[in-house]
Automatic annotation (TrEMBL):
It comes from the Bacteria. The keyword Cytoplasm does not apply. The keyword Signal applies. It comes from Leekyejoonella antrihumi. Residues 58-303 form the Periplasmic binding protein domain. One of its GO terms (molecular function) is carbohydrate binding. This is Sugar ABC transporter substrate-binding protein. PANTHER family: ABC TRANSPORTER PERIPLASMIC-BINDING PROTEIN YPHF, D-XYLOSE-BINDING PERIPLASMIC PROTEIN. It is found in: Cell envelope.
Length: 340
């Protein structure tokens, strides 16, 4: 099933928001709950378990179906939920109106907490504020860092995407990049725009950067779009993708186009780690998605059980860091568990 079909499945799933039925990032699996019976998608055994009353939490994301990055998020969330005696549901939609419906459904269910990503503040701010006004604590993660605290979130966990982009751009400049192609797989999401814009700023006068939008729901469309651009402009010496699956598509594009361009990316998954080990992808900007998912859940438990907040009213940055040939061996053992 290509990503376009899975996207249609995700939208159908989002329409069933009143029941908090959810699609996983790898297909149309039902939402999983984590409680005394153990953690779905848990990465490893949890040392202890809280004796506090069971809480219910809804985790809602803008995950693109098929993007395995979100499976890592869920492993972190599941580990925290198991430790904290939390039952949580997971739902996702890459379409902001449907994500808003999922948040509203969680409000209607009167859950004890909501962990949510915000890729589109104009579309999601009203319903996030509605949750806060209803007395439901909201943690935010992965997207929406600039707006999280003003929306009333108890904390934000992720990276500043503009800062991450600048770091990527500076590294590209240091490596001698002259013509960078930045590949945006989901048009209109602010955090992705920040990655490309930050890269351009970091690159500075050392080189130029062009951004293209591709259909991230379809592997073949991503590959053909990048390949066509490489054929059109042989001077492109780096392809920068904004997610691990698209980096693997870019590797195919470079080969098909007989291009000499190097591939680098944001974010990782197990397959991407293998591509770095083999040299097909030079490096990845890592925001530690396992940590994001873990903190998004754990922060709600801390707040509900002890009134604690993390970060002193400021976003908690989980990245950026770089994964490359110098540290890939250390990362690989965790990637094999699905946690990096």
């Amino acid at each position: 099933m290509n990503r376009k079909n899975r996207t249609m499945m995700a939208v159908v799933c989002a329409a069933a928001a009143v029941s908090l039925a959810a699609c996983s990032s790898t297909g149309g699996k039902n939402a999983t709950s984590t409680g005394s019976s153990g953690a779905a998608n848990s990465a490893a055994a949890v040392a202890g378990k809280a004796s506090t009353p069971t809480m219910t939490v809804a985790m809602i994301t803008h995950a693109q179906p098929g993007d395995t990055f979100w499976d890592i998020i869920r492993k972190g969330a599941s580990a925290a939920a198991q430790k904290d005696n939390i039952n949580y549901t997971y739902s996702n939609s890459a379409q902001a109106p449907q994500e808003a419906q999922l948040i509203q459904a969680a409000i209607d269910k009167k859950v004890d907490g909501i962990a949510v990503t915000d890729p589109n503040t104009p579309a999601l701010s009203a319903v996030i504020k509605k949750a806060v006004a209803a007395g439901i604590p909201v943690s935010m993660f992965n997207a929406g860092e600039k707006d999280a605290m003003s929306l009333g979130a108890i904390g934000y966990f992720g990276q500043d995407e503009l800062v991450a982009g600048k770091a990527a751009g500076k590294r590209l400049a240091a490596e001698g990049a002259k013509n960078v192609l930045c590949v945006d797989q989901t048009a209109g999401q602010q955090q992705l725009l920040d990655r490309c814009n930050g890269t351009k700023q970091g690159l500075g006068s050392e080189g130029k950067m062009e951004q293209i939008n591709v259909d991230g729901t379809d592997d073949s469309a991503v590959t053909s779009s990048i390949q066509a651009k490489l054929a059109q402009d042989p001077s492109i010496d780096y392809v920068l993708t904004l997610g691990a699956p698209y980096a693997l598509d870019a590797v195919k594009s470079v080969s098909n186009a007989n291009s000499k361009a190097k591939v680098v990316t944001f974010d990782t998954n197990q397959q991407l780690v293998g591509a770095i080990k083999s040299g097909k992808v030079l490096w990845a900007v890592d925001q530690q998605p396992y940590l994001e998912g873990y903190l998004a859940i754990d922060s709600l438990w801390l707040y509900k059980t002890n009134g604690d907040t993390i970060g002193g009213g400021q976003p908690v940055l989980t990245g950026p860091s770089f994964i490359d040939s110098s540290n890939i061996a250390a990362v690989a053992k965790y990637a094999a568990k699905g946690t990096r």
